[in-house]
Amino acid sequence: MPGVRAETVYLFRHALLRDAAYELQLPGDRARLHQGALEALERAFGGRAPAPPPLEEEAASGPHPAGPVAEELAGHARAVEETGPAAGRALHGELRRRYLRVAAENARRSFRNLDAARLWSHLASLLDGTGRGEALRRASEATGDAGDWREAQRLGEEALDLHRRSGNRRLEARALGCLARLFRDTGRLAEAARAHEEALAVFREIGDGRLERHTLGRLANIHRELGRLELAEEEFTRALEGARAAGDRAQEVSLTGNMAILYRFTNRTAEAEQAMRAALRQHRASGDRTSEAVVLGNLSALAKELGRIAEAEDLHRQALALQRAVGYRRGEGLAHGNIASLLMETGRIGEAETSLRAALRILAEVGDRRAEGLFLGNLGNLNEKAGRTEEALLAWQQALELNRQTGNRVSEAHVLGAIAQAHTRSGRYREAEEGLRLALDIVRATGRRNPEGILLGNLAAVYRATGRGPEAAESIRKAMELHRAEGNLRFVGMHGADAAVIHAEGGRAEEARTAWIEASAALLGVGDSTEMDLSAKALREACDRGGIDPRRVLAPP
C-alpha cells in the first residue's frame, strides 16, 4: 500500500481483525456480549434510564447521566433485539427507542443540532402515528437550526401531514408553528404569517392559552417585520397581558424582549433598552443561551444606533460566540453581518469585508433571503467605500431585488439611499433626489425616524449641490433634530459637519463654529477618525469659499 503510513495500515488491519473476530461469534454469543455491555454501561451511568413520557405529550424526558453514551446504549439494545432470544426482543426494542430519545434530547440540549436531527430522524423511522410525527417535528427544528432549510421543511411538512391525518389538533398546530418559524428564518414572511394565524386559530379552539400567547407573540414579530407596527403592538400587548394574568414569568420575559424591538422601531429607545436588559438578565439566570444570544444581538444594534460603538461591537462578539456555541447557523450569520457593519463604520474595511462575506455565505446556505438582501446592501456600501463602484452597483441591485421579494421595505429604503448617495457623488443630482424622495416615502410609511433623519441629511447635500441653499439649510435642520432626538451620534457628527459647511459657505462663521464643535465631538465619540478628517477638509474648503478664516471655525473650543 504505497503512500500509506505504517500506523494507518496497522489500524486498518486491526479493525479488520476485530470485525472478523466479532463475526466468528455465534449470534447468541454476540447477543450475550451486547447484553453485558448494555448492563455494564447502565450501571456506570446512573442505572437504566426511566421510561419517558409519550412524545405526543410534547415533554422532554429530562437529562440523564447516560446521555453522553445513550446512542451506544441504543446500539447494544438493537443488537440484542435482532439476535437475542425472542422473549426479550420487545423489551430491547423499547430500550433501543428509549435510548435513541435520550441521545437525541442530549444532543439538542448540548446544541449539537446535526446529531440531534439525525437521532430524531432515526427514532422517527422506528415509530408510527403521532409519535413518528412528533419525532419528525423535532428533527425538523434541529435541522433548521443547523442550516439545512430544505430538509427541515420536508421533515416539517411530513410531520404536519401525519398529525392532520391523526386528528391531533394540538400537534398539528405545533407542526404549523415549526414551519412558520422556518418560513420566517428564510425570509418568507407572508407564508410565516399564514402558518402562525392557522396555528393560533387551533390553539384558541382547543383552549391552550400558553401556546396561543406564544404564537401571538411570534405573529406580532412577523407583523413588525412587515411594517405593521400598530397591529404588532396590539398583539404583543394582548400576549403580555395574558402571560401576566397567568403568572407565566418566563413567557412574560420572552415577550418583553420581543416588545423591546418594537420599542426600538417606534423610537422609544429608553424603554427598548430597559426591556432588553431585563430580558437578558432573565435568560442568563435561566441558562437559556439561545435567547441570550438573540437579546445580545438586539441590544448591540440599539447601542450602535445610540453611537456607543465600542459597546455595540463587544455585544455583537458575545452574541457571535454564543451563536457558535449553540450551533445556530442563521444567528451566526446575522452576528457576522452586524459586526461587519460596525467594522465598516469605524474604517476597518478589510476586516469588515471578511466578516460580511462570511455572513453572506452562511445566510445563503441556510436560505435566509431577507437577511441576505440586507447584507448585500451593506456589501454595496463597502464596495463603494473601497472605490469599486461597478461592484457596488451590482450588489445594490441584487439587494433591491431580494428586499422587494421578501417585503423588507426598511432595507429597500437603505439601499435606495445608498444608490442616491453614489449618484450625488457622481453629479447625477436628479437621479439622487428621486431615489432619496422614494426612500423617504418608505421610511415615513413604516414610522422609522432614524433613517428619515439620515435621508433628510443626504437630501440636503443634493439641495446644496444644485444651488438651493435655503432648502439645504431646512433639510439639514430637520435631520439634526431627528438625530439628536434619536441619540444617533454618528449622524449628529456627519450631518452636523454638513451643517457647518453650509454655514461657512454663507459666511456665517459663528454658526459654522457652533455646528462644528457639536459635530466633531460626536465623530470623536464614535471613533470615526476617517470621517472626522474628511469633514474637516471639506469645512476648510467651505471657509475659503465663504471668505472666512478657517481658524475661526476649526480651532479647538
Structural class: mainly alpha
What would you call the quaternary organization?
Answer: single chain
Largest sheet report: none
Order of helices and strands: HHHHHHHHHHHHHHHHHHHHHHHHHHH
**Gross geometry:** elongated
Number of strands: 0
The portion of residues assigned to helices is over 70%
- Return the average pLDDT rounded to an integer: 86
What does this structure look like?
- The chain is an all-alpha fold.
- The chain has helices at residues 6-24, 27-44, 70-83, 89-109, 113-125, 129-146, 149-166, 169-185, 189-206, 209-225, 229-246, 249-265, 269-286, 289-305, 309-326, 329-345, 349-366, 369-385, 389-406, 409-425, 429-446, 449-465, 469-486, 489-505, 509-525, 529-546, 550-554.
- Helix 13 packs antiparallel against helix 14 and helix 17 (349-366) runs antiparallel to helix 18 (369-385).
- The radius of gyration is 29 Å and the shape is elongated.
Please give the structural blueprint:
Layout: H1 6-24, H2 27-44, H3 70-83, H4 89-109, H5 113-125, H6 129-146, H7 149-166, H8 169-185, H9 189-206, H10 209-225, H11 229-246, H12 249-265, H13 269-286, H14 289-305, H15 309-326, H16 329-345, H17 349-366, H18 369-385, H19 389-406, H20 409-425, H21 429-446, H22 449-465, H23 469-486, H24 489-505, H25 509-525, H26 529-546, H27 550-554
Helix pairs in contact: 2-3, 3-4, 4-5, 5-6, 6-7, 6-8, 7-8, 8-9, 9-10, 10-11, 10-12, 11-12, 12-13, 12-14, 13-14, 14-15, 14-16, 15-16, 16-17, 16-18, 17-18, 18-19, 18-20, 19-20, 20-21, 20-22, 21-22, 22-23, 22-24, 23-24, 24-25, 24-26, 25-26
